[in-house]
Amino acid sequence: MSFVTRIGLAAKSPFSLFGLGAVRTATKRAGGTVHNHGGSPGKRLGVKKFSDQYVIPGNIIVRQRGTLFHPGQHVKMGRDHTIYATVPGFVRFYKEKWMRGERRFVGVVLEKGDVLPRDEAARGTSRYCGLVDLNAFKSQQASTTL
Description:
- 18% of the residues lie in helices and 24% in strands.
- It contains three helices and eight strands, in the order αββββββββαα.
């Protein structure tokens, strides 16, 4: 191919006016980028036992990051802020005024009809005496003394 022919072909190109020469085109489509590469599996957080559900000691009521719910009566909080039951009973969720706002609490009541927060001045403190069935213990004591 002669020099004159090459100049003639270059003049037909739309980019020859700007001095760019040939333009390469893509042989593959753009794939894009992936953010976080799939991430990590979910942590299964949230409320596990809802209001009025029966729980036994050790049942997890709420799994959370931070204290969205605070521990109330007959529950404790683990080091990862998991709230779990310490007595058998029924779950109750309630709110109390706290400083300028309000806090959400989770508690366990011993009887199904009870409400939280408990009016301790009128009704007394709610106590659970675990591992001792007093009726069975009294009947056993009465049968051994006869």
